[in-house]
Amino acid sequence: MCGIVGAVAQRDVADILVEGLKRLEYRGYDSAGVAITNNNNELLTAKRLGKVQELAQALIETPLTGGTGIAHTRWATHGAPSEVNAHPHVSNSTIAVVHNGIIENHEALRSRLQGLGYEFLSQTDTEVITHLVHHELKSSDSLLSAVQKTVKQLEGAYGTVVMDSRDKDNLIVARSGSPLVIGYGVGENFIASDIMALLPVTRKFSYLEEGDVAQISRFNVSVFDSNGKPVEREAKEANVSHDSGDKGEYRHYMLKETYEQPTAIRNTLDGRLVAGKLDINTFGEGADEIFKNVEHVQIIACGTSYHSGMVARYWLEELAGVSCNIEIASEFRYRKSFVPKNSLLVTISQSGETADTLAALRLAKEIGYQSSLVICNVPGSSLVRESDLAFMTKAGAEIGVASTKAFTTQLVGLLMMTLAIGKHHGMSDEKQAEITQSLMSLPAKLDEVLALASSIEDLAEDFADKHHALFLGRGDQYPIAMEGALKLKEISYIHAEAYAAGELKHGPLALIDAEMPVIVVAPKNDLIEKLKSNVEEVRARGGLMYVFADSDAHFASDDTMKVIDVPICDDIIAPIVYTLPLQLLSYYVAIIKGTDVDQPRNLAKSVTVE
Ligand code: GLU
């Protein structure tokens, strides 16, 4: 969500900041801004509504020079997207601030500061930080101490960077709830909300922890914990390539990432199935002991990750014989819940920074969960650091806001988790071998599925003038139908809903007419005859159907139904296999609709606010 970049260097930093913002733009993008301190200690700012390109253009027309600067792409929470609400916010022409997150007590702070004579220019919650730092500085001996005093008064979530033009050698940064990473250069140092922003300038990073405040200067970085005690935050070389943020030959990141799935899953599997057996250590130290004692699994996630968790529930109860619940993080964190004995809490998050999921993990520890595991794509992220065990999905950078490869690699991780837990709960050797075999067959199977792209593209035409769509599935394909509906609504803005097909007659059948396309996910499995009855219910009411099925399911195209022939695959991996055609369908429908596929309106990636 939204992006922060900051730099303290000898050279001019404007280009570094703007390039960093471009690389973060997928996280939030209603406006962008930059503030730079020049050699005469003057504060120079530029802000633009819209994409980072608008800001880049403004800086070509009126360049800002100087070696210390901060920049931001905003995803508005308080105050409409506008130039005046764009960050950085400035107090008294000296203090400039960028901020990710939400200051929950901003109203109280605003009235206090107004009482002290501060004039507010924006509607944002962020502006209170700016004036508060300016105010605290009056009774502090340094910017660092003023920021330390300021953050103690803030409630809510923030990753923030503060610059004082009178002190151009330092940036002060603070983290609580929104991630910040320090990048180490030679004679220059950087700060960003994601390493992706800084890959062109460094590979060496350290992550701030909750409550940390740090002072960043050209030759030195000092970090202090929430008690003001100096602490070390280990710097590590990042193992990602410079251009992992490039689209390559593809028109959109989402398409690239959809096509990357066979390779991404090969990476997820790589080295983890040794001689046909799962290497339990891949979940981290002590995993086998934890899995042995697990009697119940509670899964917590949001959005697409929630759908992968729903599939895992089917797997865990059927294959591993362990009871499992799943809940949306924003619900779980605000209710009193029962903790069954020997429960494992499993969180799922692409970024590892999802605010609600992180809060749920912290709550779970307080209320007595024995152990925790995260399924995550970003090493070193908050959820990884704060969980007992972690399974890294190794999907590679996912830039498209609509998740694709992060989802399918999560499913692979969750199936491996099912194997690891099942092994201790009576899963037979044959079953284990069967699952392993299915997993190994997956990348090649997905290559076959991707070959359906052009027939799915043809189908997308039918959706050009539609405003609604219904997705149906049963069993472990029900969450896949939900994921298909989410994808369609996210990027094509067509209202889409998913139902467990057995629920049709309890309400949604009333919606069926020629204007409501019905997408059915129908591999041949134990439920196929039940699903066929539901299909007939739709047909009898004049519905138009798009059925994704294998040849063994025996559907035939006719006036009321178009059948998309999906390659036959093992039941166990079918949820993963059937995800891809639905991703492609959404993609091509969005292309026809002419929407912004990679940056759909109102959305952002890596949801670090509540
Ligand atoms: N709450 C702040 C605003 O609305 C920051 C939003 C963001 O994280 O971009 O300006």
Which helices and strands appear, and what pairs or packs with what?
Blueprint (H helix, E strand, L loop, with lengths): L2 E6 L5 H11 L6 E7 L5 E7 L2 H10 L6 E7 L14 E3 L3 E9 L2 H10 L11 H11 L5 H10 L3 E9 L6 E6 L4 E4 L4 E4 L11 E4 L5 E4 L4 E4 L5 E2 L4 E2 L15 H7 L1 H9 L3 E2 L2 E2 L8 H7 L2 E6 L1 H18 L2 E6 H4 L10 E7 L5 H13 L3 E6 L5 H5 L2 E4 L12 H18 L6 H22 L2 H8 L7 E6 L4 H15 L2 E6 L17 E5 L5 H12 L5 E5 L11 E5 L8 H20 L17
Parallel strand pairs: 18-19, 18-20, 20-21, 21-22, 23-24, 23-25, 25-26, 26-27
Antiparallel strand pairs: 1-4, 1-10, 2-3, 2-4, 5-6, 6-7, 7-8, 8-12, 9-10, 9-11, 11-15, 12-13, 13-14, 16-17
Helix pairs in contact: 1-2, 3-4, 4-5, 7-13, 7-14, 9-13, 9-16, 13-14, 14-18, 15-18, 16-18
Bound molecules: glutamic acid (GLU).
What does this molecule look like?
The protein is an alpha/beta fold. The chain contains 18 helices and 27 strands. The chain has an eight-stranded antiparallel sheet with strand order 3-2-4-1-10-9-11-15, covered by helices on one side. The model has no long low-confidence stretch (mean pLDDT 94). The site of glutamic acid (GLU) has 17 residues, from strand 6. Its EC number is 2.6.1.16. Catalyzes the first step in hexosamine metabolism, converting fructose-6P into glucosamine-6P using glutamine as a nitrogen source. One of its GO terms (molecular function) is glutamine-fructose-6-phosphate transaminase (isomerizing) activity. This is Glutamine--fructose-6-phosphate aminotransferase [isomerizing].
